[in-house]
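Reopening: structure tokens for the S-adenosylmethionine complex, inputs below.
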Amino acid sequence: MMNKITFDLISIFPDYFAPLKLSLIGKAEENGLVEIKIHDLRDQAHGVHKSVDDTPYGGGAGMVMSPEPWGAAIDQVLASSDATTHELIVLTPAGEKLTQVVAAELATKEHLIFACGRYEGIDHRVTEHYRTVPGVRVRELSIGDYVLGGGEVATLVTMEAVIRLIPGVLGNPDSLVEESHSLPENVVEYPNYTKPASWRGLEVPEVLLSGNHALIKKWRTEQAQTRTRKLGEQTGE
Ligand code: SAM
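Re-run output (same inputs, fresh job):
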């Protein structure tokens, strides 16, 4: 049976998620493979200004997102879910790095909640609190070693990486085989070519036109290894 994942996204900028209606993810939702619910954090904020942030304890620049609206929003999502386990993904540059392995693991879950921070981030007690709630697994996740303005783009990146791994989402599941960073070798893919065979004086490597599958496989393996090694030299990994 295909697993359907429910995604609950919480943000002060719900409009950021408009692209989820497009392409692969839009189709996955239409086909009932995923369900995506978007929540405006400000619906949980009180007062005239519907403020969701305050000055940091201990001083310093910027504002910190208050725990109360986050607690209310996450509680509401949990209460309205019939899933038995929940992954609460808190986007932060200080989190565990998103990799293909993490994406593959998330693609097996039934319920993913994405908490999109803004300003200097979310009061740390929110993650501390939900770590103690039965059935909830908190995962602080970073999409890379740089700082974005908010967690919305990081959520879109994570969702795209996860959703394309859900069985039935890609028209041709073979597309997932031999992809960059696929399990278990963590190599990057060989270079790809399509028609025409000659373009601006550049020719497609002869071997790919040979029809000799064993030779093609060998060439692709070598290319993938070379690219992976070069990438390692660049990044020092
Ligand atoms: N003060 C935080 C720090 O230094 O770690 C950065 C806060 S950032 C300006 C605001 C929000 O953007 C974060 O709370 C997080 O949700 C999101 N964000 C920024 N960079 C990110 C990254 N690399 N991965 C995931 N989320 C990120």
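The beta strands are 5-11, 34-40, 53-54, 64-65, 86-97, 111-115, 136-142, 198-199, 202-203. Helices lie at 23-30, 67-79, 100-106, 125-131, 151-163, 213-235. Marking as resolved unless the reporter disagrees.
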